[in-house]
Amino acid sequence: MRFTTEHPGMVRFILFISLAAASLSQVSAQSPSVLKRDGEKAFSDGRWTDAHKLLSAYQSAQPGDVGILTKLGIASYHLGMGAEARRYLEYVVTVAAGGKDPESQYYLSRVYHGLSDWERAIASYKSFLKIAGEKHPLRENAADNIRRCVAGSIMQPNPDIALMENMGSLVNSPGDEFVPLPSLNHADLLYFAAARKGCNGDLRNEEGFEDLNRGRYCSDMFRARLENSGWETAGSIGGLLNTARVEIPLGFNANGQVLYFFRGFTTYSGQFFADTASRKDEYTLNPPPFVSSVRPEEGDTDPFFFNDRTVVFASRRKGGQGGLDLWITTFHDSLWSEPVNLGSRINSPYDETTPFLARDGRTLWFSSNRTGSMGGLDIFSAVFDEKKLAWGDPVNAGTPVNSPADDAGFKLSADGSTAFLASDRFGGYGERDLYIVYFREPRTASMTASTPGLFYEVKGSAIPDLPVENVMLAPLFYESDTDLMNEENRGVLEKAIKAALVHPEVQLLVTVFNDAAAQSRFDLYSGIKRAETVGKALVEAGVPAVRVHLRCVGASYPLARPILDDAVNPAAARLNRRVEITLASAEPLTFPFQLLRPQLPDPAPGIGRLDEQSKGLVFRVEAATTRQILTNDAIAMFSDVIIETQPKAGTYRYMAGCVTKFAEALALKKDLAAAGFPDTKICAYVNNRPVTKAEAVSLMKKYPELLGYVKLP
Q: Which of 89, 282, 330, 506 has its CA 20 to 30 A from that of 135?
C-alpha cells in the first residue's frame, strides 16, 4: 500500500508515526525483515512489550503495512497505551481497512471502551457485529460489552466517596503486578506478586523450562513499604520462598504469623503452602502444603483465608451458576467441609473471583465481569442480611474504584481507610499495576468483628455440616402471584433452603397446585410460571439449580373437595391454590421430614393418589418439550398430565401418565405418538426424584422394572 497526503487523517497519522519513530533506539539497526519476523513472533506469543518495540522499529523502516499497524494498535491496547492504540486502530479501520476487518474493528471498540468513550464504543461494537460472521468467537463478548458500556454511561463518579491513585513506579513496573496483600500486623507493609524482570524464574514456558524467546516471567512474592515519600518496593520476600516457579502470596492466618502462598509452573496449576514467619530460612526449604477441600490442581483459585477456619474461593467446579463462582469451605472436627456455592445472589453466569470477606464476617467484596460491570472485572460488594438470612444484591463500587478494564484483588486495610487492588486500566506502567484507594470515610466493616464471627453462624442460617433435625415444611398458600413471596411463605422457603444446603444429597421438589378456574392447559402453564418464581428464590439463596425440580400438576390433585354436601365448598379455592416443597432422594432420607399439609375431615381423593405416585418407582412419558405454552390440545386426552422444568432451563416438559410397569410406559409412549406427539421419551422417578440411566443401574436390584429403562437407546 502507498501513502498519499490527500486524506487529512493520513497527514495526522504520518505525523504521529514520525514522532513514534523518533523515540526508537538501537533496535532499529536490525534489518526490517528480522524486525518484522521477531515482532510478529512476539505478538503471537503475547509478549506485548517486545512486540511493540520491534514492530515500531519495523514501521519506522518500512511504513504502511496495514497488518503491522493493526498489531501495533493491539499491542498498544494491551500495554495500556490508550491514546496510541486509538490512533493506530482508527487509521486502520477508517482509512486502510475501510471498516471491513473484524479484528481491528473489535479492538478499536475495546480502545474506545477503555477510554470511557461510551457512545463511540457502542457504535463501534455494533459495527463489529455487522461485519463479523455469525460464528465469530467474539460476537457474544461484543454484545455483552455493549451492555457494559450502557452500565458505564449511567454510572456516576464517586469522588466524594474515595480517591484513587497508582502506587507509582517504585512499586509498579512494565511487567505485571497483582494480588496486593496488606500485612495484618504492620500498616506500612504490603505484600504482592509480580512477574517482571529480575524474578527468580526469569522467562519460562508453561512446561516450566527456561525459554528466553517465548517464555514469560514467573511471578515472585515482593514487599512494598510506606516511606515518608510514599510507597516503594522493599525487595522480594527472599529466602527460599521464591523459586524458579510461579509464587503468589494468598493470605495470613489470624495472628499474621503464617503466610499462605501458591506455587506452581503456571498460575492455574500448582499447590497452596503455609510458611511460618518465625522460622529461619534454612528450615523453610520445604514449607508444608496447606491441605483442605480447596483443590488448586483442579482449578480452584483466589482463596481468601478468614479466621483460620474458613476459606472463600473461586472455582468452575460443577454445581455453580456458570463461569467462575465463589464457594466457601469451613473447618469442623479436624476436617474441611465439602465446599458450598454462595448462590446466585452472589454468583452469576459470568465470572466471580478474588473474594475478600471483611472483618465483620458479613460484608463480601469480589470482582465480576457480569453485564452490570462497566468493562471487564468490576469490584462489587454485598452484605449478608441477618434478618432475611440471605445476601443482599451486590452493589458496583463505581468510579474511581472501577474502570472499563479489569479491576480485581480488592483488599481493605485493617483500619478501613484504604484499600488496594490490581488493574490493567489505561495509563499504567505496564500490564497490571497496583492501585491504592483512599476512602473519605473508613469502611467500618473492616474495623470490628461481629458476634457470631461469620454470616453462616447467624441463628437460622445454613451452616455447612450442621445436622438438621425434624424438617417440617408447610405449603406456600397464595391468592394471587404476588402472595408467593409474602413474609410467611419466605419463612417456609428459608427452612427448605437450610435443609438443602446442609444435606447436599437431597433435591427440592416444588409442586404447584391450582384450582380449576380455566382450561387445563392454561392452569398448567400459569402454575409452572409460579414454580419458576419459587425456584428462582431457592437458587438465589444458594441451592444449586440442578438440585431444584419444578412441576405443576394443575387442578388434577385437589386437597379440598370443590363440592361438599351438594354445595360449593368456600374453602376449596384457598386450600387448593398452594405450593408444596418436598425433599426427595433416591434413598431414604437420613433425617425426619414432614410436609405440614392441612388435615381435612373429608379430603379429596386426588391428593392421596398423588402421594401414592410419589412412593417408589414410577414412569412418566415426556410428550413434548416447549419454550411456550403447548398448543396441541390432544394432550388433554391423557391422564396425569403435568409440566416440569428446572430453574433457568427456559424449556417446559409436558409429561403424561404415571405407571409402575415399564411395559405400560411403552404402551403410553405409542399412544402419545399416535395422538401427534412423535418425539416422546420415557422418564423414570424414584421417590419423586428423576433418575438418570446411570443412577438406574445402581437401583435395578431394588427396582427390577428399571431394566427396560436402562436398555432404552
A: 89
Q: Which residues contact 30 (CB under 8 A, 6 or more apart)?
A: 38, 57
Joined grid coordinates for residue 557: 390433585
Angle, vertex CA 648, rays to CA 588 and CA 525, nearest 5: 85
Domains of the chain plus CATH, in order, are 8-154 (1.25.40.10), 162-457 (2.115.10), 471-710 (3.30.1330.60)
Give the cell for residue 99: 471498516
pLDDT above 90 coverage of the chain, percent = 52
Other Cβ atoms closer than 10 A to 601: 4
Helix and strand numbers (H, E) in the chain are 15, 36
CB-CB contact of 514 with 554 (8 Å): yes
What is the H or E stretch that residue 50 is in? helix 48-61
Q: What is the mean pLDDT of residues 365-370?
A: 96
pLDDT in tens, 387-416: 878 889 999 999 999 999 999 999 999 889
CA-closest candidate to residue 199, choices 221, 179, 178, 215? 221
Residues ≥6 apart with Cβ < 8 Å to 462: 340, 389, 456, 497, 498, 500, 501, 502, 541, 542
**How far is it, in rounded angstroms, from Cα 40 to Cα 34?**
10
Task: Output DSSP code: residue 353.
Answer: E
Torsion of CA 75, 206, 433, 38, to 10 degrees: -30
Which three cell numbers, joined as nine digits, stand for 624? 413434548
pLDDT digits (tens, 9 = 90+) for 559-576: 988 888 788 888 888 899
C-alpha 10/C-alpha 262 separation (Å) is 50
Number of neighbouring beta carbons within 10 Å of residue 621: 27
Burial of 44 (0-12, 13-18, 19+ CB in 10 A): exposed
**Phi, psi of 261, rounded to the nearest 5 degrees:** -145, 165
Angle CA 175–176–177, to nearest 5 = 125
User: Is the distance from CB of 563 to CB of 577 less than 8 angstroms?
Assistant: no
Q: Is the pLDDT of residue 64 over 80?
A: yes
CB 301 within 8 A of CB 317: no
Residues 607 and 560: their CA atoms lie apart, in Å, by 9
Helices (H), 619-687: 662-674
Exposed e or buried b for every residue in 49-59, given b needs 16+ CB within 10 A? ebbbbbbbbbb
Q: What is the pTM of this model?
A: 0.64
Query: Is residue 555 a contact partner of residue 530, using CB atoms and an 8 Å limit?
Result: no
- Of 137, 139, 147, 72, nearest to 111 by C-alpha is 72
List own/partner pairs for 651-655 with CB under 8 A and 24 or more apart. Answer: 651/625, 651/626, 651/627, 652/525, 652/528, 652/625, 652/626, 652/627, 653/622, 653/624, 653/625, 654/524, 654/622, 654/623, 654/624, 654/625, 654/626, 654/630, 655/620, 655/621, 655/622, 655/623, 655/683
Starting at the edge strand that comes first in sequence, how are the strands of the sheet with 176-182 ordered? Answer: 176-182, 189-195, 220-227, 230-236
Q: Which helix (H) or strand (E) covers residue 142, if one does?
A: helix 139-154
